[in-house]
């Protein structure tokens, strides 16, 4: 295992780095695995100890391994601060995964089609809750006519509707040249990384965050740093420490019904974040895909508080499912123009058809009514979940549900390991453990909207059984 079989012209320390990263990516080395001691590695590779030390120092700086006093060198158990290799090995890009596989996720995905499994992992509403709307029939000729309403920024009627909704809901007046239509929020995020950052740059996100495991950051060579959260949201003091020590270039967060915790950033914390971003002249990317699923009055969006400091991301996929994969970026005109040019260069064109569907959905006369019905149904589902959660309150701390589709459950007892979460897969209870969003292993995200009365009863019965087993372990 610890041998360099191929002769290469690159320095030996670089070859050692590439081999160890390859072992981590293909699963030969797992998170938390301990590497041999420096002297042993030097013997295995038949090199000076200084060569091994150089390689390990580089791996530490890239975030792939950690050195702990008295414990030696271990494979990093998380993604915080991880960067790509110093040089691109093009051949490896064609022969291996670009991002380490998550064993738990692979096993979970195999169970998604099992009729006996309870899917509380998927990040969508069940089909029975997705609002219905009438889609007019179009001839091919009529669709071609609609195609003429496309601009480099997107389908103009859809842009105009988005502008109207933002003005109504967030009290911000934006024009069509400040809105770029994308194929979902993830494409929007990818474009922002390509235009605003360079490989090696650092980004601050919430800890935990759904962004944690997205491969787009690793692919772009971006280092992610998590900012601790409390009941009011991202902690500003912790964020400022990161800005000063890690040279943060961008702040990305999900302040309204945060994924995975379902929490809401307070109005006071939002203003403090804006003040800090202005102090250090750092742009903020605000992901607001859950905003319209609110049960009560919610704080102003960050975009509303600071229109020129904040880049706003929206999407229809949470309300209408991934079948309508339409998102948008709202930002100042100069940035939107640069993003549009990048989108065209990458040939990220979007067919007019899903944009026409999105426009039809948003302008349907029953949309507001259907949305109100949906929110009312979600509120009932949330209340039913919290009522059922009383049975497991001694073992799990359950977050409030004020909107969105997620609830976060935190284990109250001894430290859990990744292996402990295999019990949920054995019981065919598909949830999202915290280690998919952070280095934490003590909590889980549950999509409460996917529960019927029957599956809710099954969930809490299974969870009580699992909790007893966890307490004994």
From TrEMBL:
Tagged with keyword Iron-sulfur: no
CDD domains hit by this protein: AAT_like, WHTH_GntR
InterPro entries listed in its UniProt record: Aminotransferase_I/II_large, HTH_trans_reg/aminotransferase, PyrdxlP-dep_Trfase, PyrdxlP-dep_Trfase_major, PyrdxlP-dep_Trfase_small, Tscrpt_reg_HTH_GntR, WH-like_DNA-bd_sf, WH_DNA-bd_sf
Residues passing through the membrane, by range: none
Annotated keywords: Aminotransferase, DNA-binding, Pyridoxal phosphate, Transcription, Transcription regulation, Transferase
Gene Ontology terms, MF aspect: DNA binding; DNA-binding transcription factor activity; pyridoxal phosphate binding; transaminase activity
Residue span(s) of domain HTH gntR-type: 10-78
SMART domains: HTH_GNTR
Family (UniProt): In the C-terminal section; belongs to the class-I pyridoxal-phosphate-dependent aminotransferase family.
PANTHER family to which the protein is assigned, alphabetical: HTH-TYPE TRANSCRIPTIONAL REGULATORY PROTEIN GABR, TRANSCRIPTIONAL REGULATORY PROTEIN
This protein's name: HTH gntR-type domain-containing protein
UniProt source species: Enterococcus malodoratus ATCC 43197
Lineage of the species this protein comes from: Bacteria, Bacillati, Bacillota, Bacilli, Lactobacillales
